[in-house]
Amino acid sequence: MTKILSTLLVLAIAAVVGAAGFIWSGWYDISATAQHTQPVYSLLQKTMHRSVRLRSEKIDVPPLGGAEQVDRGALCFITKCAQCHGGPGYAQDEIGRSMQPLPGPLVDASKRWEPQQLYWITANGIKMSGMPAWRFRLPDSDLWALVAFMERLPGLSAEEFTALVNRHRDARCEAANADEEAEGAPSGASADPERGKLALTQFACNACHLIPGVTGSRVHVGPPLAGIANRKLIAGSVPNTPQQMVRWLRDPRSIDPFTAMPDMQVGERDARDIAAYLATLH
Q1: What are phi and psi of 126, to 5 degrees?
Q2: pLDDT digit string (tens) for 23-64?
Q3: What is the pTM for the complete model shown?
Q4: Structure confidence at residue 188 as a pLDDT band (50, 70, 90)
Q5: SS3 letters for the chain?
Q6: Interatomic CA distance for residues 55 and 123, integer angstroms
């Protein structure tokens, strides 16, 4: 038994050293012009499929297929999805054609995925693929409208899809109420710091700031947010209160007209939740 354990330990150490050497060598080509090998691609794809199925199995599917809902889904698909996924007789934009892994066509998505799985993917995105989590951009009704449209997509001809593109060309899939949130928080609901932590990543806050508890690169564009709850002022000018933090997150130039902090179009609910998380960073 001692010999077996010793052998396993040696093998484990060798595996760690080998992995470290592989990483430090820079041998693996991470460029978007180099595809994954087929075994790596298949392994990642299988992992993704199993993950989606596990996390979507308890989602209740509402009634789908009403004409108004499908038309709304077509609008959202054309303005949010077609640039990466294309459509019948409609090519992806150049950004979609250039990504690795390539965003697959959704013409047959409803034949490969159940409605609750399509909803989960659309709402939560796919890590390390470029697929965004639309639940921080679209209300729940629009997410299901997209699913309803994808259910109809296999039956559309190229001419029919082109007609939809032309009809919706100048429209935008935006919530009728700018403050409507994808998960439909009830009026007066208390702020949720855990959801705020997630929202920080969905509004790219960690692209410029080091944020405790949030994964990101070692960036030095904006100030680190460690200890922000203890700071007396926001942008050196207004008291650091939850209300002023929400204002700063939603409209930074209303506090400092010369700030480099961009307007990230953060909704009211998201701003309250982000502010609640930042208030925990002592």
Answers
A1: -130, 120
A2: 899 988 888 888 888 998 899 999 999 999 999 999 999 999
A3: 0.84
A4: low
A5: CHHHHHHHHHHHHHHHHHHHHHHHHCCCCCCCCCCCCHHHHHHHHHHHHHHHHHHHCCCCCCCCCCHHHHHHHHHHHHHHHHHHHCECCECCCHHHHHCCCCCCCCCCHHHHCCHHHHHHHHHHCECCCCECCHHHCCCHHHHHHHHHHHHHHHHCCHHHHHHHHHHCCCCCCCCCCCCCCCCCCCCCCCCCHHHHHHHHHHCCHHHCCCCCCCCCCCCCCCCCCCCHHHCCEECCCEECCHHHHHHHHHCHHHCCCCCCCCCCCCCHHHHHHHHHHHCCCC
A6: 12
Q: Tell me the one-letter amino acid at 92.
A: Q
